[in-house]
Structure formats: C-alpha cells, structure tokens
Amino acid sequence: MQLRHSPFLMYSDGQGNIYEDQTLYTVGREGWDAFEVPLEDWIELPDGGNLYELPGRRGIGIDVKTGEMRLCEKGWAVAAFIPPAHTGLFLAAYETIEDAPTLPLFCYTAAGWYNEKYYVPAVRIEQDIRQECAGYDAELVQEGSQYLKEKYPNNRLVQHLMDNCVDAYECPAARNFALSRWECPIPSSPACNANCIGCISFQPEEETIVSTQDRLTFKPTAEEIIEYTVPHLENAPYPIVSFGQGCEGEPLLMWETIRESIIAIRSKTDKGSININTNGSKPDAVKKLCEVGLDSIRVSLNSAQKSIYTAYYRPNNYQFEDIVQSLKVMRHYNKWASINYFVFPGMTDTDAEYEAL
C-alpha cells in the first residue's frame, strides 16, 4: 500500500498505552541526525514485531502544519522491534531528558501509525520462513522442549537450550530444535576474545548497559554435542547444526572440542550442514575445522573499516586481518562464507563503508 503521507508519530503514556499524535509525522534517525523517511521505505510492521516505550525520551516529529521538526511533549517516545528476516532503515528519533534510564540492548527502529496500522521503515532481506513468528505453536514448542529434557536428562547443553533459550528467551533457533525441524543450535564457549561494547551475553558489573541474556557457564564436551546433534541431522527436515550462538562467547576458542565433535558427527551421518557463527578471529582453527567437515561460516561484523571494527569489538589477541583471512580460508576449501552484518543507520550506510565492503 502506497502511503499518502508519513505515518503519525506515536507516544506512550508510561502506563502501557500507546497513542498516535496526529499533529506530528514520524521521522527516522541516522547516526545523531533526524530525517524525513521516504514514503517508499515504510512497510507494515511485520508479524512478530513489537513496540517499545522509551522512558525518559521525547519523540521527534515533523509538524503537519508548519513542516518544522519539534518534540512530542505528550508522552515518551516509541520504537519498534522488527522480527528476523528484516533490516531497519532508520532508528527511532528522540531527545533524551536528564537522568533518563539506560535502554537495554534491543533494536529500536522508527515506528508510526497510519490508517489503523503500525508502520516501520524496513526491508525484508531474507525470504526463508524458518524464524517467522507465525510458524511457532507455543504448545507444540513446550511439548517438544519437555520431550528433549526427558530424553537427554544428563546433557547440560540440551537442558540449557530448553530452560534458557526456549523458555526464557524464546530463541527462534532453539524453538526450531524443540520442534525437531531445520536448525539446531550448539552453544559451545563460555569465554570470548572480544570485548564488544554492545555484547548481548556479558557486560561488566560497573556498566549501566544490561546484557539481554546470560552467557553459557560451562564448557560442553564433544559427547554432549554429539548426543543430540546426530539425531537432529538424521531426522529433521532440511537440517543444520550451528556452533556459535547469542548465549555464549566465541566458539573458535573451543575449536579442539568442535573439531572432535565434527569428526564424530560425520562418522555417524553425512546428512545436513554443519555451520559456525563466529567473529572469525582464528583462521588457523577455521582451516582445521574445514579439513574435517565444516560446511559454512558466518562471521559477525559491525563494519568493514578496521578502525570502526576495532573500536567496537575491542579484540584480544587477534586483529581485523584475521577475520578477512578466515573468510578466505573458507572460500579456499569451496565452503560457504557469509557475513552477519550489524546494520546501524548513519554508519553502515555511508559512502566510506560501502567502499570498504
């Protein structure tokens, strides 16, 4: 549906209620600056999206009469979480008042109200339906979770995935595992060799930012990994097992265990794909994993510019060039290599970033 004008700005009353302000059009933010969002960039908020109140923040909009930008003083600013398979094009635009609380590490996409519907500036970048909200039946997920906990009562990884990732965080990958389909996560490392400013699984106690989930607290054994991944690869439709998840550190620090696991898995089944999500910091380890059967790699990256990458990741005992080399190693072995790109409007859409990519 083509919009005739920008959606109206929304605000929250602080009591769980959200309203539209029909005197203001919603704008978006890139970096520190607010901009009018092109009409063609707005889409209906996809199924699985949510709205957030941003306490201590006043939304910025364009006055429908004067065309000037001003604050909405009626309540707190509102932003949207957009579900997997979509990328936001503009952040929520607001002005922070003094002593406003620190926001948790979520996605804060601009959001507006138009013709009885919520709209966000976003684009769908992945057509795969594996993590669509509509595909999860909560009752079936819980049944599958209970079944797996009973089937593997002594497997710490399975218990972690069901108790934390399914029940507490509603992780799409873990829920698919509970439904015995598609992907199966393998968190494997409690430690990390980066100190990302926005780490979602660990933040220092003195930091005001709160991590959104708890990190794995133990080192899984190859036996624990093999026990539940082989049956998944054997029986699930379009199966893939993935080392490296949001609830852990850097899996390449556990490359010896991962190597042992891959060897054992491939001795029992040749079905499915074995993937690793990683920061790509240890190309020698990637080489050893390729040699025993690793099929694909997805390297996390916030920028293709070394200075920006280093400032955010704050790496320990590796450097930006190691990431590039890890990708080259995968291509040398004719394996699938991709980038998990942290999109941040105002930085990742600059000319300099485009050239670096």
From TrEMBL:
Known cofactor(s): [4Fe-4S] cluster
Signal peptide as annotated in the record: none
InterPro entries: Aldolase_TIM, Organic_radical-activating, rSAM, rSAM_sf
Name of this chain's protein: Radical SAM protein
Record's keyword terms, sorted: 4Fe-4S, Iron, Iron-sulfur, Metal-binding, S-adenosyl-L-methionine
Pfam families: Radical_SAM
Phylogenetic lineage: Bacteria, Pseudomonadati, Bacteroidota, Sphingobacteriia, Sphingobacteriales
GO terms of molecular function: 4 iron, 4 sulfur cluster binding; catalytic activity; metal ion binding
Keyword Thylakoid on entry: no
CDD domains cross-referenced by the UniProt entry: Radical_SAM (cd01335)
Domain Radical SAM core: 187-352
